[in-house]
Structure formats: C-alpha cells, structure tokens
Amino acid sequence: MKILLVSPNQDIEFAESSKVMKQYSKTKTLMMPLPLATIAALTPDDIEVKLWDEPVHGLIDENTELGEYDLVGISIYVSHVNRAKRISRVIRQRGIPVVIGGPGVSTVPDQCREDFDVLFIGEAELTWPQFIKDWKKGIFKKEYRQISKPDLSLAPIPRWKNIKDNIADYYSGAVQTTRGCPFDCEFCDVIYLFGRRSRHKQIEKILQEVKNLENMGMRRIFFSDDNFIGNRKFIKELLKQLVPLNNSFEDPCIFGTQVTINVAQDEELLTLLADANFGSVLIGVESPNRESLKEANKVLNYKTNLVEDLKRIQSFGISVAASMIVGFDHDDTSIFDQHFEFLQESCVPNPQMFMLHAHRGTKLWARLVNEERVINMGDKYAENPIGITNIIPKKMTRAELMEGYSNLLSKMRDWESFSARIKGFVSGITRKPNVTPVKRDMGMARGKFQEFLASLEDDSRCAIVDIIQHTFMIAPFMLEKVIEMIGRQLRATVMLPPLKEKLKKQIEHEQSDDFKMEIEQAQNFIPDNFKTTYKTIFQGLYQQVSDSLPDKTQTEEVLISIVTDFLIRWGQGFDRMEKYHHTYLQELVEKALEKEAEKDISVIDTPADNFSSNLLADEVLNAVDLQLRSL
C-alpha cells in the first residue's frame, strides 16, 4: 500500500517573492511541512508514505506525474480550502480516494464534505491510526472526529524521509513542543481547536527532533507552538537542556517561536531563550490602541507598558516580530500613524502588519456576522487571502482601511525607517547571549555578501552598510542575526509591490458602479433542535454549576456564559447532541467554574428553588439569545 501526503501551496506571496529572491537565497518556501511528517510517523511501517509539498515539488494539476498511490491525504489551514479542493478533483479523477484534515477542516467541515472522501476533525494522533486500520479492512467512515485532546507525550517523532533531500528549499525547520493557549482573544480560534490547557511532548523527543533537523542541515528551527511559554516550568526545563545541546553543534541553530508579552517579566526565561540562541520571537502585540486591545480581550497587553516590555525582551538580543492588526472597532484613520510611531519607538525590526479578519468560528466572527459586517469573499480571493479583509470597519470605510493599511506598509518597509528600528534594537542590547560562536568560513561569507550588496539599489545598499557598521561597533556578536533581519526586510520589500497593487485593485473594484457587496447573513444561533435538547440537559447543567459555585447568586450568569460559548461554536447546523458536544460543554463548565473560583469572595449560599423549572430554563435561553445578538 502507498500513501501520498500533500501540503497545498500555502503562502503564495512567499512563493512569488522567492522567484525574485532566488539571486539572494535558494529557499522556495518558509517552513517544512510538519503536519505531513507527523502523519507519516503515525502511519504503520508496512505502508509506504511519500510527502508532496507544493511550494517545493510543484503545483498538482492534470499533467502532474505523481506515481501510483492507493490513497492521498491533504492537510490544510482554512485559507487553503479551495486550493485543496482543486487538488482533490485532480486526484479523484484518477480513481484515488482523498482524505483531508488540519485546522482548516476542523473550522469549516461543512465546506469540505462534498469534495473529499474522508474528513478528519480535530487532532489526528488517535484518529489517523484508527482510520488506517479501518481502511485496510475496507470499512472506513466518512468522518473521524477527535474531541478529547490527545496526550502529546505519546506523539511520535516526525518522519521527514523524502523531504530531507529538499532541505535547501526551506527557510526554516519546524518542531512542535506544546499545543493549547490559556487566553481567549476575540479574533483567535486556537482555544477551540487545541484547548486552553498547554499539553506538551516529552523533552527527550523534542531534543531528538532538533537533532534530526540539524543532522539534515537545517540551521533555523521554529518551535511552532500556539504559546511556547504556556507552561513555563516545562519550557524552562526544556531550555536548560536545549542550551548545551545547541552549543554542542558545530554551528548552533537559530531558533524562533511564538510567546506572549508577559515573557518580559521573567528574567530567567529571557536568559534561557537568549542562551539557547532564539534569534526572534513572534508576539501578538496587535495594537498601540488600549481600547482596541480591550475590545479584542488582549488582557496581558492592555495591562502593561508595551514599549517598555518590547525593549526589555530585545535587550537580551532577542528581536520581537510583533504581529500588529489595524481595523478594530476602536480604530479610526489615525490608527495608521499610531502604529508607525509605536513600532519606531519600540525598535521592532521586522513587524508583521495585518488588517483585522473575522475567521469563522471565532467570537469576532459571530459578533460581526450578527451586525452584518462580514463580507462573503467567495472564491475570488480564497486562493490568496493575505492582505484582503472580510470585515466592514466601524470608524472608517473599507477603502480608508485598505488605503491606510497600504500606506502604513510603505512607511514601515521604507529602508530609512527599518534602519532606525534595527539600529535602535542593536543599541538597546544590554546582555550578550551565551552562545558558541559559529565555526564557518566567514571570509567566504564576506565575499558572497559583497556580491549581494553590489546587486542592490542605492537606498537599500546604503542602509544595509550603515546597519552592519553600527552592529560591528555596538554588538558584533549579533551580526549573523542582524543579517537574518535584513533578509526578512528584503523579502518584505519584494512582497510589498504586488500586495499594494492587489489592494489598489480591490479598492477600485469596490468603488466601481457594478460592485455589489455580499454580506454574510446572521445565523439562527439557537436552532430548534438545540432548544429541544437543551430542555433535557438544563437541570443537570444547572445543578452542577450551582453546586460548584461559592457565590450561588452567579449561577444564572455563569449558565448564560456557558450556553452562549457553546452556541457560538456549535449553533450553526446543530442537529442533535453528540458525545463530542457533551465533552465540549463540560470543558466550558470547567472553564467558567475556574474563572469564578479565582474571584476574591466569601461563600454565598442561596436556595435554588426553581432550578428545574421550565420558566427558569426559558429565561436563561432568552438571555443567551440577547447575549448573542449583543455580540
């Protein structure tokens, strides 16, 4: 038996920029396809598995020679649904069944059912092996759903096999240590997909994954966690072992990951990250506008001084790739200048700027759909959604948002602005990372770098020379990482013109006489089928919540919160209460009770005379309906 695992072309901007950047770099895509390698490792040894990563191996079409396979599997994010459908049509026309999984399927399973033979909803560590057993018997199901979160200590080491021959095509390797995030940002769906508790792999396996990638020749490795520091005790123990491992390599690897802003308050953690050679960390800073942060429920961010925190993190020689968003309800046209001034003051070398997007299944999506402020983009931009928002902003027009965003990108990517930020970053470093110096032939590297400089335009060349000279004077140990940041800036400037052109065309299109905006219609968040089920579960739900609350007067409010969150996730298309619905409901109950337990109150015990009455159940459900409409 033979299986082909496919990763669709997931970053068209990166692929397009690679055509221009090939004179500077051989990489074709950003990151190695970790989901495929994980599924390959979950597949029994008696089945031959090959990986096909479209950005590296080529787009699959009717003329692509793939070889003979018994099954094809595709892993996607939600923005790649339409690309996956095109691949599936090509494969199924050849008589080969196609299965699909990944976060994209878990978010919009209804958009995938007609185009694929089997759907995997949720994490696949348990369902993929079960499917393989069923498939061998010829009795597999149409859907495999994983509700409870798998124990990651049982996760296998990814199997790269036929990817290792293409290692030079990738900018970065990928290792995942944890899943889950304790926070609940309005625009994010991580807690729905992976839960709010941080689950982690065994440290020995993580270190082995790093060794494997280093042995393959990969020197940049990204820890692709939802929140790398979600479990600080575990991560500190991992880093304490990663530091000596990395220093044992002839050329230490450069790591990156995603963390939250509170890393700034933990000096021990920052020291370990620096000494492990983390060159950069991605942080969801989102906005300098405090009201926008409150709106998005970015609790950590609006309760701190972001500029001070960012400078403190970067003082350890770790650059912050700040993820920023424009288009919140509290943003008006002044927000673009606010963002630019904030980034320059914070000295963030390589920020990432986005327009707010309402992803299906998030609280933001539910709220904006109910306000008729989500646009149905259709298929036109689904293949390449980066840079096009699907929302109608509150304090500006869509044209003002897109034009302001475009202008902000130009200012942010200007070489003079970049030079000021990166020189400020270098000057702000107060602690040298304790990392073994590289042992490569720097003379050869200097020769190539001089050739590279000669190929650039005057503005970029002058800025780069100025940055390099500044780094030599202030922090020469940062030279390699600074060159990495310069490379990211170069790629960003290459990607900018086509993105600005796309935004310009979209603005012109929406301002034309023949443009008709299609609004996603508000859904019935309380389906009739749920109302029937609700009556049967209400008494038990009420009793569990009431018995566990120290303040009994909060029982109804907690119930409203639980049922609201449940319907935001499962209301659309609800048919009947399945096992996974019960599991999710119980998770919401536990979350709500934990939140109440954190309040500083004395025990208040009040009788619950009406907890089983239909009247109280109806009142709670009516309040849920009002809550959903207010969202």
Description:
By secondary structure, the protein is an alpha/beta fold. It folds into three domains: 2-146, 3-Layer(aba) Sandwich (Rossmann fold); 176-429 and 436-498, tm_1862 like domain (pyruvate-formate lyase- activating enzyme), CATH 3.80.30.20; 528-630, no CATH class. It contains 24 helices and 15 strands. The chain has a seven-stranded parallel sheet. It has a six-stranded parallel sheet with strand order 3-1-4-5-6-7, with helices on both faces. Strand 5 (98-101), helix 5 (103-107) and strand 6 (118-121) form a beta-alpha-beta unit. It is globular, with a radius of gyration of 25 Å. The relative contact order is 0.07.
SSE layout and pairings?
Blueprint: E1 2-7, H1 12-21, E2 29-31, H2 34-42, E3 48-53, H3 54-57, E4 71-75, H4 81-92, E5 98-101, H5 103-107, E6 118-121, H6 127-137, E7 143-145, E8 170-175, E9 178-179, H7 190-194, E10 199-200, H8 203-215, E11 220-223, H9 232-248, E12 254-259, H10 267-275, E13 278-286, H11 290-295, H12 299-302, H13 306-314, E14 319-326, H14 335-346, E15 352-355, H15 363-370, H16 398-413, H17 415-427, H18 442-454, H19 458-474, H20 479-511, H21 528-548, H22 555-570, H23 579-597, H24 614-630
Parallel strand pairs: 1-3, 1-4, 2-8, 4-5, 5-6, 6-7, 8-11, 11-12, 12-13, 13-14, 14-15
Antiparallel strand pairs: 9-10
Helix pairs in contact: 1-20, 8-9, 9-10, 14-16, 14-17, 16-20, 17-19, 19-20, 21-22, 22-23, 22-24
